[in-house]
Amino acid sequence: MVSVELGRSEDIGETARAATRFVHIQTFGCQMNVNDTDRILQVLAPHGWAATEDPAQAHLILLNTCSIREKAEQKMLSQLGRLAPLKEYNDELVLGVAGCVAQQEGAALLHKVPYLDLVMGPDHIAELPAMLERMKQGERRIAETELYKRKDFRFVEAEPREETKVSEFVTIMKGCDKVCSYCIVPFTRGREVSKTPEMVLREVEKLVASGAKEITLLGQNVNSYGKDLQSDDMGPLARRVPSFAQLIKQVDALPGVERIRFTTSHPMDAIDDLIALFGTVKSLCEFFHLPVQAGNDRVLEEMRRAYTIESYRETVRKLRAQCPDIALSTDIIVGFPGETDAEFEDTVRLLEEVRYDSIFAFKYSERPGTRAEKLGDTVPEATKKARLAKVLEVQERVTRDKMEAMGGKVVEVLIEGPSQRSAKGVGTNLQMMGRTRQNHIVNVPVPLGDFWSRRWVGKLAAVEITEVKSNTLFGRFI
Ligand code: SAH
Ligand code: SF4
Ligand code: F3S
Questions:
Q1: Which of 26, 32, 71 best tests ligand 3's pocket when mutated (most atoms within 8 Å of CB)?
Q2: 296 lines ligand 1 (CB under 6 A)
Q3: How many domains does the chain have?
Q4: What percent of the chain has pLDDT over 90?
């Protein structure tokens, strides 16, 4: 039975457990979607569904989609086209779209794509078994994309999967109440709804009991955690809701939690009580993803980011004063409507000044219904391309310098499993892969026996960095 909390608790009913049917899910986009895919598999399992990697074997195919940029959306449509012929061989195959494109397009997607059977917004995961039952009873095509408010929204409480990973994500809230003018997320994920602290702690405890060592607290805007629970008609609960910083401390206090990370937070809300945790809460990793988007105040204002570059710099200064070892990463958008060459150069200067450990950079992509859409997509594609290349080149240099400086250092690495190359059987050296607290990936060679026994998986090991090769760190256990 699926556990649900807050809001309606309609019984989704039991269907035949015996007959195994197969579901194939392809996941696009961010960690929210990765997490949602796990929840979809979880709600289906008690109804006799098992996951398959092979779409040809599936009775249900779901594309869990992303619409953050236009390209992501196109990817989903062409993938749908590739899967459509499978319906000719299997009349009973249900082809569905979940995630952010589903939410954005709603029932219109059924009209656009005639061979599509199901459109399911991210708020409707708990109802999926009931929707499939409705189809069994004769309903042909279903679209469920109402965005629930807190009162009606039901989280599916995560249960450990068969193979719990060393590093696991725990969603602490859904939605986003910010108003960044370029962004589709507030439309596809709705208002912020927080899990109760009890539910978060229970999920962490279950994951740790089944082998997780590192927990990443997940939300579009984790700094706002709990605000909806505090201000709403939550009665006595409201008084017990911790702030995000307090929640981190509560997670830290649970036995077995070795490392805590979180993503993502809005720079405007990176407030002092959160900053104060770095270097003081033992399991909180020295890593902060602090998306700046642009280095120019006029552009930031048009983006409605609600901070200035000076206040952002101040946050970086405070973080580094509190915790000199902290690694920083960021997101950059180039070619926002109206961004001039000089304004773009401010972004380049900011990268050179802050010297992030890593960045994610994107060309601006106009999204339907957003405020920025009204500004027009004014920066030519070639300019966007050149600006993207420039920020990546600048960052490449910084990253290389920072990595080279790590040579010879001893770092704490949490071993996650075989390195990508070793997992694919590439190369003669068998290696395990792990991450430092600052989120750098380190590959460590191990003897054949250790590789197959996986005895290092889940271990926190002291590793000396022996080699830095094309942005990859290699080390040895000491
Ligand atoms: N809530 C998170 C993540 C949002 S999506 C945050 O605020 O950081 C991840 C990144 O995608 C954003 O930080 C932004 O850099 C980028 N992004 C969002 N909308 C975009 C758009 N319309 N065009 C290009 N990049 C976009
Ligand atoms: Fe989008 Fe801004 Fe919310 Fe991030 S904070 S999800 S960029 S609206
Ligand atoms: Fe994409 Fe939706 Fe995540 S738009 S980035 S999958 S919240």
A1: 32
A2: no
A3: 4
A4: 79
